[in-house]
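Supplementary Note 3. Input sequence used for the single-chain structure prediction.
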Amino acid sequence: MLKTNNIRVYNWEGSLRGMRNPLNSWHLSDTDFEMKTNPQGVQYPTVGENDYSLCKRLITAGPDHRKFLRQIFVSIDIDAPLFWWKEFDTYKVGTVANSCSTMHKIHSKEFTRADFSYETMSSETDEKSPIVYGSYKLSPSGLVDFTIHTLNYLRDKFNETKDKKYWRMMIEALPTSYNQLRTVTLNYEVLRNLYRARRHHKLTEWHTLCDVIEALPYSEFITDKWPEVSVYE
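The predicted structure, written as discrete structure tokens, is reproduced below.
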């Protein structure tokens, strides 16, 4: 499971102005910076034909020439499981993230299935994939219920006693399917690297994020899926 919210794309004016600094060609800029809003609620300017043509040439020329992409910033809330966040951390260059704290707030509410990405650990897989350990037999969904029950037991013990050993046990028992919300700031160049590396990854969370990327304003700057019409109407 991966969910996104509060997507913002900004610094269009600064990035496109700086794009023209090497050739002192600011007088050729024709972008209208009166912001419009796309169906996803993200604001964007109308990049003029001159600026759009230069954007495409610089992007095609390679990372040394398309530095302006590093100045188109994106802020986004992402709610995803810890096992996905471990892979996302590969893209730490050019990113900043503020996360909900498992250290300070993990004991503040009761654990439920909604706190985890357990899409395939359901009763539908119980008969096909029994978990056998010695003389014990447990279904996948039974394991989920047992894990949540254990976490809530440790939570209750910590809240009752304030003994940090229970808090520590709760942290140690927390599965990587636990969902965490982070507010992430990155840029279009980072998204290019991410999109190419993860578009066809076996984790469906990456597919969801790549779909979000494709819906960003001027996503062709990231995906290289250049439309026939060069400006947004």
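The mean pLDDT is 89. The two ends are 34 Å apart (CA to CA).
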